[in-house]
Specification:
Layout (H helix, E strand, L loop, with lengths): L10 H16 L18 H20 L10 H4 L24 H20 L4 H31 L22 E4 L2 E5 L15 E5 L2 E4 L5 H9 L11 H10 L7 E4 L2 E6 L2 E4 H4 L9 H10 L3 E2 L2 H8 L6 E2 L18 E2 L2 E7 L25 E4 L16 E3 L8 E2 L2 E2 L1
Parallel strand pairs: 9-10, 11-14
Antiparallel strand pairs: 1-4, 2-3, 5-6, 6-7, 8-15, 11-12, 12-13
Helix pairs in contact: 1-4, 1-5, 2-4, 2-5, 7-9
The chain binds fe (ii) ion (FE2).
The site of fe (ii) ion (FE2) has 4 residues, from α5.
Length: about 425
């Protein structure tokens, strides 16, 4: 976890670029938008602004910047998310009640923290401090993605259904035909062993055995998913895992999270506003749960890939695709070549567990990933709101199987 990965910018530049981008992502938002927490999983944009500053303050400035002065005595617990060994924290569902501190004060907090980190980076800081700045930058990139997925949910629940990015939808090409790429399998290395940054859950690198397999060259499209719905996909328990069927019944699921049925058919809500399904037909379906991905795969006569099958396939591919840097902000139809990075995170059939010999980071930072290793599934590949710099073949995202508010989609395997 050290410095830059294939990039010549200094850590100070890396830090300021990441910090700046978070503010840029907030530019289309009003202060009122930034207060909304429309589901318990989501957080208000204002909270993301404060919490990402809190991370640098708590894990970089307080331990490593001599004489660092807290911006506000209350913030260490107020903006703690889930680090129990670090401090108390407020109930997550109450984050929308944080009308105080006001946005202006949060922006001052960010500036105060920025100034501290810049000061630290200007002197001969210990290696551990530098590693934590890089970790903080990666943490902030994760929150950039969450900020956008949370605002998408917030705007979906707003009766006006506002667009985060108004304007014409980019022209949609037809999706490439669904083909399968064969892989030999065999004894493979999984996990990260490079020199650049990775999260603790990507280590240690270890061997896995893969039987020969094939992965679809692109993700399942909205149009294909609509066929599953039309074929009674949500009314046929034989297609579903037991817990998945329970979720269908409990939540009344009939379609992906942001699909609504109007008089003229399905409409899909996106960061670019609400559009007819026809305009998204060839784009990957997103905002589906693991259960829906699994049921779709069964209906289609296929299965989901394991995380190791995905990693072994993606390893040889360049990290290119419809990621945040492209600015499209919605999944795009696959054009030739393999669609592996970007568009939608892909649910895998792998439970989120520590690799053999896994060790969480020491201290409170050990709570970052390790304590979530039960009851969650791994997703791979990044989405249309994942920063390009953030993703790699060994990257493991994870969510509980019912989760639907992320850009999560489906790749078939066999
Ligand atoms: Fe966080």
């Amino acid at each position: 976890m050290n410095g830059e990965a294939g990039c010549c910018t200094s850590l100070a530049e890396r830090f300021s670029t990441v910090r700046q981008r978070t503010l840029e992502l907030c530019r289309p938002l009003t202060p009122e938008d930034m207060m909304v927490q429309s589901c318990p999983e989501a957080s208000p944009a204002k909270w993301h602004l404060a919490h990402t500053a809190w991370f640098f303050e708590s894990f970089v400035l307080r331990p490593f910047l001599p004489g660092y002065r807290l911006f506000n005595e209350e913030f260490p617990w107020l903006f703690n998310s889930y680090y129990r060994t670090f401090a108390e924290f407020p109930e997550k569902r109450l984050r929308s009640s944080f009308s105080r501190p006001g946005l202006e004060e949060i922006l001052h907090y960010r500036a105060h923290v920025d100034e501290g980190v810049e000061r630290l980076l200007a002197v001969d800081a210990p290696a551990e401090a530098l590693e934590r700045v890089e970790l903080g930058a990666n943490h902030e990139e994760q929150h950039q993605e969450l900020l956008l997925t949370d605002i998408l949910h917030a705007f979906f629940t707003n009766p006006l259904r506002p667009a985060y990015l108004p304007g014409e939808l980019p022209v949609q090409a037809a999706a490439a035909a669904m083909g399968f790429l064969p892989f030999e399998g065999g004894l493979r290395e999984a996990g990260y062993a490079g020199e650049g940054f990775c999260f603790d859950n990507e280590r240690p690198q270890h061997r896995v055995w893969l039987e020969p397999y094939a992965l679809a060259g692109r993700l399942v499209t909205c149009g294909e998913y609509a066929e599953f719905i039309a074929d009674g996909g949500y009314r046929r328990p034989e297609l579903w895992l037991s817990a998945g069927w329970d979720a269908v019944e409990a939540h009344g699921w009939q379609a992906p999270l942001y699909w609504t049925r109007g008089e003229d058919g399905w409409r899909v809500f996106t960061l670019r506003g609400e559009v007819g399904l026809a305009q998204m037909e060839d784009a990957p379906v997103s905002q589906v749960s693991y259960y829906e991905a699994d049921a779709y795969a069964r209906w289609a006569g296929h299965r989901l890939a394991t995380e190791f099958e995905w990693e072994a396939a993606a390893e040889a591919m360049p990290v290119e695709g419809n990621l945040l840097d492209v600015g499209r902000l919605l999944p795009a139809p696959a054009h030739g070549g393999a669609q592996f990075y970007g568009d939608c995170w892909e649910w895998t059939a792998s439970a989120y567990l520590g690799y053999p010999g896994y060790k969480p980071l020491p201290g409170s930072l050990g709570e970052y990933n390790g304590k979530f290793m039960s009851g969650q599934m791994v997703l791979r590949g990044g989405s249309c709101v994942t920063p390009r710099r953030h993703i790699r073949a060994s990257y493991r995202n994870f969510f509980p199987p019912e989760t639907r508010w992320q850009f999560s989609g489906i790749r078939l395997a066999r």
